[in-house]
Amino acid sequence: MQHDGLAARGTGAAAPFVLPQPERLALPDGAVQVWRLDDAQVDPACTRLAHTLAPDERARALAYRHARHCNGYIARRGLLRWLVGGYLHCQPEALRLTVSPFGKPVLQWPQTGLAFSVAHTDGLALLAFARDCRLGVDVERRAGGVAGGVNAADVPGFGRGIFSVQEAQVLARARPASAEALLSIWTRKEALLKALGTGLSVDPTAYTTEDDWRRGAGHWRASRDGIPMSGWTCLDLDAGAGFRAALAVSLPDASVAWHRC
Ligand SMILES: CC(C)(COP(=O)(O)OP(=O)(O)OC[C@H]1O[C@@H](n2cnc3c(N)ncnc32)[C@H](O)[C@@H]1OP(=O)(O)O)[C@@H](O)C(=O)NCCC(=O)NCCS
């Protein structure tokens, strides 16, 4: 497959990939829509969407050394353009995307209240959308029954410099399931920091994420320097047995729905 110099070489069996009709895309206030792109859909997504990428995005795609990473980026960015274009009633190729000093993709044109966040790991990409809020999503793979490929023996050192004191205590109490606990804290924290737009460029230990049992299983809450961040919906996402995922959105009672192509 060739796309103006962007090569999508086969990476395995292709799965069905049907793009949603733009006119059927609707994003109500207070709703978060999470789209999943499985690895087996990457090649068909590349074929359908590579032409929508801007020159700087094509250059970034071509800079990847491995075809797999190149194709994954084309598919994610193409699907991002398709869905943003659908929600905003614009042509995907007409959108102008730039990047913040911290690496967060930003919609420069058209300027609207559409918020989005992208995450990917080996085997899966997630793209989340909502209106008039801050939004972050993260996903990590559980490799061979071990969370994120992390060996349980390495867990205590792994979150150093990332986890707050309270999170480190939760991790210490979680043995022998500490690899799973680590992945839970990790995905929650990345989702939160991506929603804030800083990523790990701020001191991540200032933020604490913890279970919020009052709101139910799968809910968590966040605080900064001990001060609760109110008005947020923070959830673990069920992305399938092989993955751990989390979402943070600055809306008080957001509803979350899954979609796939
Ligand atoms: C954001 C960050 C936590 C992502 O970590 P990761 O686990 O490697 O990657 P993920 O799969 O979770 O997310 C990748 C996506 O996050 C998004 N992203 C990157 N930086 C982001 C930020 N600061 N805020 C929100 N989202 C960001 C991009 O959409 C990226 O997708 P892409 O590769 O298709 O462009 C990490 O890259 C980070 O801390 N970046 C900030 C550090 C910094 O200042 N970088 C400057 C680079 S210009």
From TrEMBL:
<dbReference type="Pfam" id="PF01648">
    <property type="entry name" value="ACPS"/>
</dbReference>
<dbReference type="InterPro" id="IPR008278">
    <property type="entry name" value="4-PPantetheinyl_Trfase_dom"/>
</dbReference>
<dbReference type="InterPro" id="IPR050559">
    <property type="entry name" value="P-Pant_transferase_sf"/>
</dbReference>
<dbReference type="GO" id="GO:0000287">
    <property type="term" value="F:magnesium ion binding"/>
</dbReference>
<dbReference type="GO" id="GO:0008897">
    <property type="term" value="F:holo-[acyl-carrier-protein] synthase activity"/>
</dbReference>
<dbReference type="GO" id="GO:0019878">
    <property type="term" value="P:lysine biosynthetic process via aminoadipic acid"/>
</dbReference>
<feature type="domain" description="4'-phosphopantetheinyl transferase">
    <location>
        <begin position="135"/>
        <end position="214"/>
    </location>
</feature>
<protein>
    <submittedName>
        <fullName>4'-phosphopantetheinyl transferase</fullName>
        <ecNumber>2.7.8.-</ecNumber>
    </submittedName>
</protein>
<keyword id="KW-0808">Transferase</keyword>
<comment type="similarity">
    <text>Belongs to the P-Pant transferase superfamily. Gsp/Sfp/HetI/AcpT family.</text>
</comment>
<dbReference type="InterPro" id="IPR037143">
    <property type="entry name" value="4-PPantetheinyl_Trfase_dom_sf"/>
</dbReference>
<dbReference type="GO" id="GO:0005829">
    <property type="term" value="C:cytosol"/>
</dbReference>
